[in-house]
Design goal:
Structural class: alpha/beta
Distance between the termini: 5 Å
CATH topology of the largest domain: FAD/NAD(P)-binding domain
Number of strands: 20
CATH architecture of the largest domain: 3-Layer(bba) Sandwich
Shape: globular
Strand content: 15-25%
Radius of gyration: 24 Å
Bound molecules: ligand NA7
CATH class of the largest domain: Alpha Beta
Number of domains: 2
Length: about 550
């Protein structure tokens, strides 16, 4: 039976999936380039990650003056960040401001979840179906679906029977959650948890922190924005942005270019203390070889352990909080405020579940394998995300010859430049696996990708091309290069992290981001475009291909055949 349901299909040059920082940037730039574009967003507001991660204490670990769009000088001059590191509400306000300021909302469709993305060979266009029933057709599809956007609640016995409330940090209720006077359990001690724990501890009756792997948490050293700092940045924004785009990590943090082993013990300690005072991710720029030389890495790790020992009064708790068998930085470094100090509060208990794991969520709380019980009113999962590939695999685009992305990536993601996938013509991924992505200031990486995509689309328009597609060989070579780059670092020796997908049962363990540096990467993608898009095949338009972009046509959508 062939269904003959007639569905209105809306035609655009480009459809962007997701209205977070990437989608908002894409709609602005594509529109500027004269491309008709529609953004489809499942939530009822823009913001993406910053829309959903509303947990108490949620904050960016890149300085706000850096973590912001550079595409409009008026915007960067007029927007005022109130703190050195912006909190989630302020970043969400910023994204909303951008959407309003540039009148982007008229091209953004909220409350619209994309349920299928399929390449139609005959028309050589992408067809996107949504949960509203609306169907869209586009020459280009831009996946701006986020890299930490699929919240991971581990499968735990008994969760359905829990009588209290439970939340995941990455899917926090819009109206907030009242935790005051409650017995609260937090599972996880990654970035989200280390931001959340000190805030929850302020009002909870008792807070139990269930820690499986201790991670390194730096003091963020956050403070209100200093007027002289803001003034200096605003006077020098072009140079600041240029520096960030050419830097290793896409921001302005100062790097020590000396190797740890070239420095005396005293000089190394002084550098580490300096980094501790600078706060947050500055620690990872302490030595040029901190992520390549195990002994230098261990020196920095022990420095942090000593800080923990000097901060936490109970020595058993302190030792439990000290990360072991984990190179510093190979699980994403955490940046918090008063994290270790919080464990000195009477109403906070650290429960190590490394050797005595959580067995069951009971109706009353948590029971560990040895039978210990923790009665709880609220349970918070700070258990992370199906990172980098999760959102893409969930949508599971169907490319040429009916091949699904999930099948193509069954043994781990393969991309060309983290931007395109062979067999998926005209599909662009913003900050995809194989690009610096989570290894960088995300806004810099987003802007670099959007710039490249707009340039490619403009090139195709000017040369009358219908399709662009990465060659299988270019993709193989690039994927090997991504792996080789990681193999020269300590990441290759420390695979138990979401960088490798190791936090998701059954996910292939493959290092996903590109660690070759944001500046090198940007030069590479720019050179490729300058050299006529090496590694890409273009297909020209033939009769019947493509629909008039702005038209609204009624077309037969044939679904279901048996
Ligand atoms: P992360 O960094 O993935 O942290 C998740 C935490 O949850 C981590 O401590 C995990 O321990 C813990 N976890 C996960 N499953 C379990 C179970 N079953 N039992 C006990 N503990 C568990 O997620 P975040 O949200 O904190 O941060 C994600 C990124 O967002 C962050 O890096 C920033 O870039 C922004 P494990 O280490 O696996 O033993």
């Amino acid at each position: 039976m062939i269904s003959d349901t007639r569905t209105e299909i809306q035609h655009y040059d480009a459809v962007v999936v997701g209205a977070g920082l990437a989608g908002v940037c894409a709609v602005y730039q594509l529109r500027e380039a004269g491309v008709t574009v529609r953004v489809l967003e499942a939530a009822d507001g823009v913001g993406g990650t910053w829309y959903h991660n509303r947990y108490p204490g949620a904050r960016c670990d890149i300085e706000s003056l850096d973590y912001s769009y550079s595409f409009s000088n008026e915007l960067q001059q007029e927007w005022h960040w109130s703190e050195r590191y912006a909190g989630q509400p302020e970043i969400l306000r910023y994204i909303n401001h951008v959407a309003d300021r540039f009148d982007l909302r008229r091209d953004i469709e909220l409350n619209t979840r994309v349920v299928e993305v399929r390449f139609e060979e005959t028309g050589q266009r992408w067809i996107l179906s949504t949960d509203t029933g609306k169907v869209y057709s586009a020459k280009y599809v831009v996946m701006a679906t986020g890299v930490l956007s699929v919240a991971q609640v581990p499968s735990m016995k008994g969760l359905d029977d829990f009588k209290g409330q439970w939340f995941h940090t990455g899917d926090w209720p819009k109206d907030g959650a009242d935790l005051s006077g409650k017995r609260v359990g937090v599972i996880g001690t990654g970035s989200s948890a280390t931001q959340l724990i000190p805030i929850v501890a302020q009002s909870a009756k008792h807070l139990y922190v269930f820690q499986r792997t201790a991670n390194y948490t730096m003091p963020a050293q956050n403070h209100p924005m200093k007027p002289e700092v803001e003034k200096e940045w605003k006077e020098n924004y072009p140079e600041r942005r240029k520096f960030a785009w050419a830097s290793g990590f896409g921001h302005n943090q100062v790097t020590n270019h000396l190797r740890g082993k070239e420095m005396s013990r005293e000089a190394r300690l002084a550098e580490l203390e300096n980094r501790w005072q600078l706060g947050g991710l500055y620690m990872m720029r302490a030595f040029k070889d901190i992520l390549t030389d195990p002994e230098v890495n261990e020196f920095a790790a022990e420095f942090v352990r000593n800080k923990i020992r000097n901060t936490v009064h109970n020595q058993e708790t302190a030792e439990n909080l000290c990360p072991r068998d984990l190179y510093i930085g190979t699980k994403r470094l955490c940046s918090g405020t008063n994290y270790y100090e919080t464990f000195n509060q009477q109403n906070v208990s650290l429960v190590s579940v490394k050797h005595n794991p959580i067995d069951t969520i009971t109706p009353e709380g948590i029971r560990l394998e040895d039978g210990a019980q923790y009665p709880l009113d609220v349970l918070i999962f700070a258990t992370g995300f199906d990172a980098m590939t999760g959102a893409l695999n969930k949508i599971n685009p169907i490319g040429r010859n009916g091949r699904a992305l999930r099948d193509v990536w069954a043994e781990g993601p393969k991309t060309y430049l983290g931007l395109c996938v062979s067999g998926f013509p005209n599909m662009f991924v913003i900050t995809g696996p194989g690009s610096p992505s989570v290894f960088s200031n995300m806004v810099t990486s987003i802007e670099q990708h959007v710039e490249w995509i707009v340039r490619c689309v403009t090139h195709m328009k000017n040369s009358g091309m219908q399709t662009v597609e990465a060659t299988p060989q270019a993709q193989e070579d690039w994927t090997r290069h991504v792996t080789d780059a990681a193999s020269r670092t300590l990441y290759a020796k420390s695979q138990n992290s979401w960088f490798h997908g190791a936090n998701i049962p059954g996910k292939p363990v493959v290092f996903m981001p590109y660690v070759g540096g944001v500046g090198n990467y940007y030069k590479k993608i720019t050179d490729i475009a300058n050299n006529g898009y090496e590694g890409f095949n273009f297909g020209s338009a033939s009769s019947g291909i493509g629909q008039p972009a702005e038209s609204r046509l009624t077309a037969a959508a044939g679904h279901g055949r048996d």
